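User: Predict the structure for this protein chain, please.
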Amino acid sequence: MDVKSGYPWWLVSNGLSHEYPPLRDDCACEVAIIGAGITGALIANALMDVGMDIVVLDQRDVGWGSTAASTALLQYEIDIELIELEEVIGKSEALRAYHACEGGVRKLGQIASELDGVGYLDCESLYFASSPKHVKRLRAEYARRRSKGFDVQWLGEQPLHDRFELEAPAALLSRPAAQIDPYAFAHALFARKCAQGLRLFDRTRVASITCDPSHVELQTEHGPLVRARHVIVAAGYETERFLPKTVARNRSSYAFVSEPLDPFPRALNGCVGWETARPYIYWRVTDDGRLIVGGEDDPIDNALKRDLKVAAKSRKLLKRMGELFPRLSLEIGFAWGGTFAETVDGLPWFGPHSKSDPRILFAMAYGGNGITYSVIGAQILRERLLGREHEMAHLFGFDRVSR
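Assistant: Here is the predicted structure, written as structure tokens:
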């Protein structure tokens, strides 16, 4: 079997949606955003909705980095289960984090409803036990979520098989969840905001940030300066180069998209899936009747070494899907790998770092909930720039206790 690999699926599917010019001349704005991925798009959207003048810069083409590599499963469920997160940050804070993500999924649906061609679809999330040893833990998680008002249903082995043809001992079926084309979404949102006055420059690398008493200056690699009152660094895992110390670890993840399935198994429509094992396998459906399958994460933080593993990793994912769905005949259409970052507690970082100038704000939507976190983070940063404090600012900020 020949595994086609290289650029992520979204770039193959959509092509290069739109090119923006590099920055040629000095400019000034209220807020400069470094990073033109889905996180930068959501932040620009939130800030422009309250009348702020925004400039966005990216060293690549729009959406070319982590956004294009994302498989874009949108869930309120954090990589760390609610019960475990309670042990790490406390019961009330863990519950707040889960409820915030629940609201984040719904907010993203509202934004997506105003855009065309972004592949947004409301779904259910199927979280299944990878082995019988995990059933007790999963049942405890179910009981805790139910007691806190989450929309979650328990599926035993036979109901799970009857409904989804999935070979697993038990699962939780949760709402809300969704899926989206992250590359198309970022481009569509940027296009709408550019029509409203956003200035967006790609292929423009920021070499350094200098802080003065009243403003910040962004020195670009090829000369032009951007002067702003504040800067927000939303450059994915590359954000670390602007921080005084490392706050996350980079890892590699792998994915493939299948050839179209005909007929497509109806049981998988409207559902995204993932498992209790860590690292976990996960999947979702595409608009044209394919499955995107991801997982096989490893600690590699080197693009060349990562890409050499794509073929073998995708075959492992294919084998695992065959074990879970014996009747499902999948063929890999295209495979890729990408770098992602994760924090110790599974939560993101939004806001200023205590050892940096307070006008330098960071948007680090790390973990499996990156897009959901970005929706919340955009609101946190907007409120800070308006002189107010968002209710999640402390929990999702750098001043939370290091763990």
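Residues 91-112 form the longest helix (22 residues).
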